[in-house]
Amino acid sequence: MHDVLGSLLAGNTAHASAFDDRFDTLQDGQRPDAVTVCCSDSRVMQDHLFGNDDPGHLFTVSNIGNRVLQDADGESVVSGDVLYPIAHTGTETAVVVGHTGCGAVTATYDALTDGISEPPGIEHSIGILEPHLRAGVETLPEDLDRAAAIDHLVEYNVDRQVEFLRDSDHVPAAVDVVGVVYDFQDRYDGRRGEVHVSNVNGETDPDALRDAHPEISDRIDRLWEY
């Protein structure tokens, strides 16, 4: 433990040295340009995957399954950690970041097909995803192997999270909601670590997206058009 902690603190020393003067304009509050909702996976480095070194630029949220929703008194609502920057800091862009080989999507897939046994906290999180992914599991093409099925379902999950944000009365219509998939397993054409845009404000057709957003056309891609 001490070796790990020592290494972490050494890294923090380097961070503090590099970032010391980057907080000067942030002492009294924050107005992040975007809120990103990523999966809690050690391979998904939220700020780094967008090349961000600026405090105050991204409001980063992570949980298993890059969920934008939570249960509140038996009702599905937009998670408070996602909603906070939208409601209180003027943030008008939300980016849902799925990733290839997602463990939470895999566990949900298994729960919906064969059943699983997990500790209560993990089971609760998977249970939140299950009703939103059930139709996707039932719609998957039959010729897919397990890994491909999971990655198709990753896209489907991103779409459902985008849809939930857009349908919420608590998210203003002016907020742009984008869905992307972070690929480090060679599932898409491109380099490992690239983000592929699959959904912009509910539009999922790649051709329509490229026509509407020509400036990012080379980053628009999908595995599954269902």
From TrEMBL:
Q: Which SMART domains match?
A: Pro_CA
Per UniProt, where does Zn(2+) bind?
A: C39, H99, C102
Q: Establish whether keyword Iron-sulfur is in the entry.
A: no
Keyword terms of this UniProt record: Lyase, Metal-binding, Zinc
Q: What EC number(s) does this enzyme carry?
A: 4.2.1.1
Q: Which InterPro entries match?
A: Carbonic_anhydrase, Carbonic_anhydrase_sf
Task: Select a single GO molecular function from the record's annotations and give it.
Answer: carbonate dehydratase activity
Reactions the enzyme catalyzes: hydrogencarbonate + H(+) = CO2 + H2O
- What sort of enzyme, by top EC class, is this? lyase
> Cofactor note from UniProt?
Binds 1 zinc ion per subunit.
Keyword Mitochondrion recorded = no
Q: Which cofactor does it need?
A: Zn(2+)
**Family note:** Belongs to the beta-class carbonic anhydrase family.
| Name under which the protein is recorded | carbonic anhydrase
